[in-house]
């Protein structure tokens, strides 16, 4: 039987088309490589400062293969690369046409960016996730540019929502939620149940915000033990999921000498809660866009670069912190006995708490009050053990893709105050 071969003219036409496509692709790649090479040579021949050091990259596609195929999350890979290069600033290349990424681990460079060159690094990258969550960039935090909408919303926030007068006026709402936190933990205590500290702390923050904004703790029916209901669980899960996929506290020990505090745990006590604030600072320790070519620390940061002030790297920089991986709140106390300077804001950017500059957090006072009250009330009212017999082990391993604990901290509380001092209702 004779094989049925295609006509020779069809084979010839197909071969010619494939050859043309190959030649076009080859010409395109050669043109891109030559363009990049010429740009680098011109930059080297000019008087422009050098670019930040960068790891070896591929032509056209930059460091994309390493980012995609590396087993670690990108932020851990970046820090491993910078550690191997022995640098506190570097440039990560993405495919041609995309932005360059400039991670920063040095507080001095971070201060130069957000103080001296604040206007150049005030923009934020536009993304699908931030656009959806902000309903078309109608908020201040995720707005790509400092435009009129951003200024209007920031003015509303600072004058109507987080102003000093409003903060004082909403004091009773925050106190109600700190009392409810104690009621919830005490209810679990009485029933012999453990407390998931991640759930307790996240829902305390969610309760405070709902009480301040809507005047209510629950969206649905209230729960008998003061804990979150189904709708509140979904609300907080949605909030943290959104934060996780945007630009992407637990109690670790018991302090016996806190017994002398006022059992009501008032915000007026914050001035004397220096060690608690030091603990929070230590927990804080453990994505701007360049709008024009900018020189920082002697390096040229090209226009459109995404500068990342690394929360992970700044707080663990061994040039700044002695024994950086050790949890040591005493490092934030000056040793003189005068601890009035212990605040949660870190304007020198040795770690990231509320940031600084025009994009700094406008609710630093509110965040400080909520965080300090959360930790103080949990330590003041209860003793904590990993298991009921006190012999459990706390797993402090971090999650693979984030800085949360891989396993939520679950502990058993025990009352440490007289029974009549605990809230009876929520």
From TrEMBL:
Record carries keyword Metal-binding: yes
Primary localization: membrane
Chain segments annotated as transmembrane: 20-38
Top-level lineage group: Eukaryota
Localization terms from the record: Membrane
Keywords on record: Heme, Iron, Membrane, Metal-binding, Monooxygenase, Oxidoreductase, Transmembrane, Transmembrane helix
InterPro entries: Cyt_P450 (IPR001128), Cyt_P450_CS (IPR017972), Cyt_P450_sf (IPR036396)
A Pfam entry, by short name: p450
Necessary cofactors: heme
Gene Ontology cellular-component annotations: membrane
Membrane topology, record value: Single-pass membrane protein
GO MF terms, alphabetically ordered: heme binding; iron ion binding; monooxygenase activity; oxidoreductase activity, acting on paired donors, with incorporation or reduction of molecular oxygen
Family: Belongs to the cytochrome P450 family.
Family matches, as PANTHER family: CYTOCHROME P450 98A9
Record-given protein name: Cytochrome P450
Organism per entry: Linum tenue
């Amino acid at each position: 039987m004779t094989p049925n071969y295609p006509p020779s003219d069809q084979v010839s036409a197909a071969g010619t088309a494939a050859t043309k496509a190959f030649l076009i692709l080859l010409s395109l790649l050669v043109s891109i490589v030559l363009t990049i090479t010429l740009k680098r040579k011109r930059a080297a021949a000019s008087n422009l400062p050098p670019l930040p050091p960068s790891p070896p990259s591929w032509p056209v596609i930059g460091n994309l293969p390493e980012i995609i195929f590396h087993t670690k999350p990108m932020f851990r890979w970046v820090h491993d690369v910078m550690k191997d290069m022995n640098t506190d600033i570097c440039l990560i290349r993405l495919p041609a046409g995309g932005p360059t990424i400039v991670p920063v681990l040095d507080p001095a460079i971070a201060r130069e960016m957000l103080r001296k060159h604040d206007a150049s690094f005030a923009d934020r990258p536009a993304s699908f996730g931030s656009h959806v969550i902000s309903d078309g960039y109608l908020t201040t935090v995720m707005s790509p540019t400092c435009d009129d909408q951003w200024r209007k919303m920031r003015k509303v926030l600072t004058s109507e929502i987080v102003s000093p007068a409003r903060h004082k006026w909403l004091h009773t709402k925050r106190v109600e939620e700190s009392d409810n936190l104690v009621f919830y933990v005490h209810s679990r205590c009485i029933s012999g149940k453990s407390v998931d500290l991640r759930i307790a702390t996240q829902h305390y923050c969610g309760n405070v915000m709902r009480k301040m904004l809507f005047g209510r703790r629950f969206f649905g029916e209230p729960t008998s033990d003061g804990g979150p209901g189904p709708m509140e669980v979904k609300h907080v899960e949605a909030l943290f999921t959104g934060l996780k996929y945007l630009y992407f506290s637990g109690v670790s020990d018991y302090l016996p000498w806190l017994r002398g505090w006022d059992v009501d745990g008032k915000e007026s006590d914050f001035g004397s809660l220096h060690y608690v604030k030091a603990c929070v600072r230590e927990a804080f320790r453990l994505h701007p866009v360049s709008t024009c070519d900018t020189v920082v620390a002697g390096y040229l940061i090209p226009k459109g670069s995404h500068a990342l002030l690394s929360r992970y790297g700044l707080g663990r920089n061994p040039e700044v912190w002695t024994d950086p991986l050790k949890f040591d709140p005493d490092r934030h106390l000056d040793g003189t006995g005068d601890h009035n300077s212990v605040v949660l804001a870190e304007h020198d950017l040795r770690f990231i708490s509320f940031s600084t500059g025009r994009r700094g957090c406008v609710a630093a006072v509110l965040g400080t009050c909520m965080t300090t009250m959360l930790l103080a009330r949990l330590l003041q009212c209860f003793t904590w053990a990993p298991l009921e017999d006190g012999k459990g082990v706390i797993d402090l391993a971090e999650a693979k893709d984030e800085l949360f604990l891989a396993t939520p901290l679950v502990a058993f509380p025990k009352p440490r105050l007289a029974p009549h001092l605990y809230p009876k209702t929520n």
